[in-house]
Write a structure and sequence with these properties.
Mean pLDDT of chain B: 92
Low-confidence stretches of chain A: none
Shape of chain A: elongated
Radius of gyration of chain A: 24 Å
Radius of gyration of chain B: 21 Å
CATH class of the largest domain in chain A: Alpha Beta
CATH superfamily of the largest domain in chain A: P-loop containing nucleotide triphosphate hydrolases
Mean pLDDT of chain A: 88
Number of helices of chain A: 10
Number of helices of chain B: 11
Largest interface: A-B, 29 and 28 residues
Largest sheet of chain A: 6 strands, mixed
Strand order of the largest sheet of chain A: 6-7-8-3-9-10
Oligomer: heterodimer
Helix content of chain A: 25-40%
Structural class of chain A: alpha/beta
Distance between the termini of chain A: 30 Å
Largest sheet of chain B: none
Number of domains of chain B: 1
Low-confidence stretches of chain B: none
Number of domains of chain A: 2
Shape of chain B: elongated
Strand content of chain B: under 5%
Strand content of chain A: 25-35%
Helix content of chain B: over 70%
C-alpha cells in the first residue's frame, strides 16, 4: 500500500505556478528521497501534505485518508521535521518533548517512556541546557525526536542535512536509517550523496512535476547507457582512434568517452590491438545520481 | 482539553522565563505608586513653581489635595501602561509565525483554535493581573493618605477601563490572525483605537464607542452616572466577542 499518494497536485503563488500537476506515491516501509533543485517545489509539496498550505487542485491521501487543509486530522500519522526547525528556546529538550507529547495526546507514562527512548536515540539524553543555546545539529536531532514522538507511520523531513557539517549529517542519516523499521521516511534533499547512502526509492522533481520516480536501483538500470571511458598514454594514440571512430568524443587530456551504440567495445579493442596502442584504462561508467539528475531535469 | 492545558502552560512558562511577568510587575507597580505620589507632591511642586507662575499672572494660594487627585492620576497614567503592555505582548502570535514554532505544534495535532484560545487567555490574564496590581497599589496608598469616600463610583470606573483593555487585546488577537508581522499588528490595533477616539468627537456617537469607557474622571467626580456607560459597555463587550470569534475562523484558514 502507498503510505502517501499525491495525485495531480497544483499550487500557485500569485502568478507563479509552483506545482503543476504533481503525482507521487510513496510505498510503505521505504526511505524515499525527494530530489529537486532549490525552488523546485519540494517544501511547498510537503507543507501541502501537512495541510499548512491550501492546494489549488489535486488530491493527497496519507495512509489512505484524504488530507484536508486547515484542520488536518491526517497529521496524526505524520511526523514532520522542517528544514530549519525552531523550538521554544526557553525550554529544555526534555521539557519540549514532554510538551509535544501532551499536545499529541500521549498518556503520562507513554510520554515519559517515549521521550527517554528518543532522547537516547538522538543523543540528547544528558543535555540539560535550554534549547536557545543549541547548535544547528542539536536542533536538527531534537527535531527528529519530536517528529518521531507519536510513532508516526510517515516521517517527513525537509532537507534535514543541508545545513549540517559532515559529522552532523552522518548522525542524521544514521538516525533515519535506524527508524526505517518502524516508519516510512520521505525526505527532500538536493544532496545526492545522502540519497545514495540511505534511500531505497527516489523521485526527481523539476518545474513542479515529478519527472521520474521508482526504486533507486531500477532507475539506475533504466538510465544506464553503456558508457565507457578510455585513457591512452598519448594524445597521438587518441587521435588515431578518433580518426577510425569519428563519433567518439575527446573528454580530457588522453581520455575519451564513448557509448556502446557509437562504437562497439570489441571493435575498438581490435583496432587498438592492430595498431599496437595499449590502453592505460578502459572503464565502464556507472551512472551517478548526479548524471541522472542532470539528465532528468534537462528534459 | 489536555493539549489546550499543555499549550496554555507553555504560554505562561514563556511569560515567566522571558521576564515579561517580572517586567510588567515592576512597570505596573511603579505606575501604581506614581499616582498617589504625584498627588501627594502636587502642593510642594506648586510651591516650587509659585514664583514663575506669579510672573505669568497666576497666584498660587492654598492647594488642597484629595483622593480624587490620586485617581485622576490613575486614569491619566493607565493609557501609558496599556501601550507598554501592548508593545510588549503584541508579538505573541507573530514571533511564532516568524520562527515556525507553531507549525510543529499544529503538525502534532494541536487544533488551531486552541492556539488562539490559549494565547487570548494568556493575554487577558496578564492584563487582568497587571491592571489590578496597578489598581491595588494606587488604592492602598490613596486610602492610607486621604479620605476615599469623596470618590464617587470608583469600582465602575476602574472596571470599565479594564474592559477597555480587554477590547484592545481582542484587537491584538484579531490583527495577529490577519497579519504576519508585529508592525502590522501594532499599526492595526493603534489605528482602530485612534479611529474610536476620533469618532468620539461626534457627540451622538461618543457614548456608543469603546473609548467612552476610558472616561473614568467623569464617574469619580460624579459628573456622569454608571448607567450612561451601559451602551458603550455592551458595544465593547459584543465587539470583543465578535473579534475573537472571527479570529478563530480566520486562523483556521490562515496559510502558515
Amino acid at each position: 500500500m502507498d503510505m502517501l499518494r499525491i495525485t495531480n497536485l497544483q499550487k500557485r503563488f500569485g502568478d507563479k505556478a509552483v506545482l503543476r500537476g504533481l503525482n507521487l506515491s510513496v510505498p510503505e516501509g521505504c526511505i524515499f528521497g525527494f530530489i529537486g533543485k532549490n525552488g523546485s517545489g519540494k517544501t511547498t509539496t510537503m507543507k501541502t501534505v501537512l495541510g499548512l498550505l491550501k492546494a489549488d487542485g489535486g488530491e493527497i491521501t496519507v495512509n489512505g485518508e484524504q488530507v484536508v487543509y486547515g484542520q488536518t486530522a491526517t497529521n496524526r500519522h505524520i511526523g514532520y521535521l522542517p528544514d530549519v526547525p525552531e523550538f521554544y528556546s526557553f525550554m529544555t529538550a526534555e521539557e519540549y518533548l514532554a510538551f509535544c507529547g501532551e499536545i499529541t495526546g500521549l498518556t503520562a507514562a507513554e510520554n515519559r517512556q517515549r521521550r527517554t527512548e528518543l532522547l537516547e536515540l538522538v543523543g540528547l539524553k544528558d543535555e540539560k541546557h535550554r534549547i536557545g543555546g543549541f547548535s544547528r545539529g542539536m536542533k536538527q536531532r531534537l527535531g527528529i525526536a519530536q517528529a518521531l514522538l507519536n510513532s508516526p507511520k510517515l516521517l517527513i523531513c525537509d532537507e534535514p542535512t543541508s545545513a549540517l557539517d559532515p559529522v552532523g549529517r552522518k548522525e542524521i542519516l544514521d538516525i533515519l536509517l535506524s527508524v526505517r523499521e518502524q516508519t516510512t521516511v520521505l525526505f527532500s534533499t538536493h544532496v545526492l550523496s545522502d540519497v545514495e547512502r540511505i534511500c531505497t526509492d527516489v523521485a526527481f522533481l523539476n518545474n513542479g512535476v515529478v519527472e521520474t520516480q521508482g526504486k533507486l536501483s531500477e532507475i539506475k538500470t533504466r538510465f544506464r547507457r553503456e558508457e565507457y571511458l578510455l585513457e591512452t598514454a598519448s594524445d597521438d594514440h587518441l587521435a588515431a582512434i578518433i580518426r577510425a571512430f569519428p563519433s567518439m568524443e575527446k573528454a580530457d587530456d588522453n581520455q575519451l568517452v564513448f557509448c556502446e551504440g557509437d562504437a562497439s567495445v570489441s571493435d575498438v579493442m581490435r583496432f587498438m590491438a592492430n595498431e599496437g596502442i595499449s590502453p592505460l584504462r578502459l572503464d565502464r561508467m556507472e551512472p551517478t545520481l548526479e548524471s541522472l539528475f542532470m539528465e532528468v531535469t534537462k528534459k | 482539553m489536555r493539549s489546550l492545558i499543555a499549550f496554555t502552560k507553555k504560554e505562561f512558562t514563556d511569560q515567566v522565563r522571558s521576564g515579561k511577568v517580572l517586567f510588567l510587575g515592576i512597570l505596573f507597580s511603579l505606575f501604581g505608586i506614581m499616582n498617589p505620589a504625584i498627588a501627594k507632591l502636587t502642593p510642594w511642586l506648586m510651591e516650587q513653581m509659585a514664583d514663575s507662575l506669579a510672573e505669568s499672572g497666576m497666584i498660587v494660594t492654598s492647594v488642597t489635595i484629595t483622593a480624587l487627585d490620586s485617581w485622576m492620576q490613575f486614569f491619566k497614567n493607565v493609557p501609558m501602561a496599556l501601550i507598554a503592555f501592548v508593545l510588549l505582548e503584541s508579538s505573541i502570535f507573530t514571533k511564532e509565525f516568524r520562527s515556525g514554532t507553531l507549525i510543529l505544534s499544529l503538525t502534532k495535532g494541536l487544533n488551531r483554535y486552541k492556539a488562539v484560545l490559549s494565547k487570548t487567555f494568556t493575554l487577558m490574564m496578564m492584563w487582568t493581573a497587571s491592571y489590578w496590581l496597578y489598581f491595588g497599589i494606587t488604592y492602598a496608598y490613596t486610602v492610607y493618605y486621604w479620605d476615599n469616600s469623596v470618590v464617587r463610583h470608583l469600582m465602575p470606573s476602574v472596571v470599565f477601563w479594564w474592559v477597555f483593555g480587554l477590547w484592545v487585546i481582542s484587537l491584538v488577537v484579531w490583527f495577529s490572525t490577519l497579519r504576519s508581522t508585529n508592525t502590522g499588528v501594532l499599526v492595526g490595533t493603534g489605528g482602530i483605537v485612534l479611529a474610536s477616539y476620533l469618532c468620539s468627537m461626534i457627540p451622538k456617537a461618543a457614548k456608543y464607542l469603546p473609548t467612552f469607557l476610558t472616561d473614568g474622571n467623569s464617574l469619580i467626580y460624579g459628573l456622569k452616572e454608571p448607567d450612561e456607560y451601559i451602551a458603550a459597555l455592551i458595544v465593547t463587550a459584543a465587539m470583543t466577542l465578535v473579534l475573537l470569534a472571527v479570529s478563530f475562523t480566520i486562523f483556521n484558514k490562515k496559510q502558515l
